[in-house]
Amino acid sequence: MTADLALGTYRCRAIPEAAARAAASGAQWVDTAPNYATGQAQTLLAPALATHPSLNVSTKTGYFTAATGTDAVNAGVLTEDQTAAGHCLAPNYVRWQTRRNRARLGRDRRYPL
Predict the structure, then answer these.
(1) Those residues with Cβ within 8 angstroms of residue 36's Cβ, 6 or more apart along the chain or in another chain
(2) What span, in angstroms and rounded, lies between the C-alpha atoms of 69 and 77?
(3) Coil, helix or strand for 44?
(4) What is the pLDDT of residues 25-78, one digit of tens each?
(5) What is the distance between the alpha carbons of residues 47 and 22, in angstroms, rounded to a whole number?
(6) Distance in angstroms (rounded) separating the CA atoms of residues 75 and 72
(7) Is the dihedral of CA 62, 65, 71, 76 positive or negative?
(8) 95 assigned to some structural domain
(9) Which of 27, 22, 30 is nearest to 5 (CA)?
(10) How many domains would you assign to the chain?
């Protein structure tokens, strides 16, 4: 077993700087989620991912901020009642959030080599 250096963005206060430093230090992965940094983590991470295209990223689906819940209702993938929990794994929502995650990260779907 080998260990890989990675960056987790949960509670990270300086995501762009941390991601750039992690990439420069040889990190292979960055972990994030659409609800980290009050919903801004993926957007803040995108420039570092664009600068370091070999840096892999993992993100999550399910949990969401109130603003994302509103967007999902407006997109027709959640009802107002479903947003109350702040989490949903309904297939339509998961597909919508996955597409949104990729767009916010500036990444297409890809797998490590």
Answers:
(1) 9, 10, 11, 12, 42
(2) 9
(3) helix
(4) 999 999 999 999 999 999 999 999 999 998 999 999 999 999 999 999 999 999
(5) 14
(6) 5
(7) positive
(8) yes
(9) 27
(10) 1
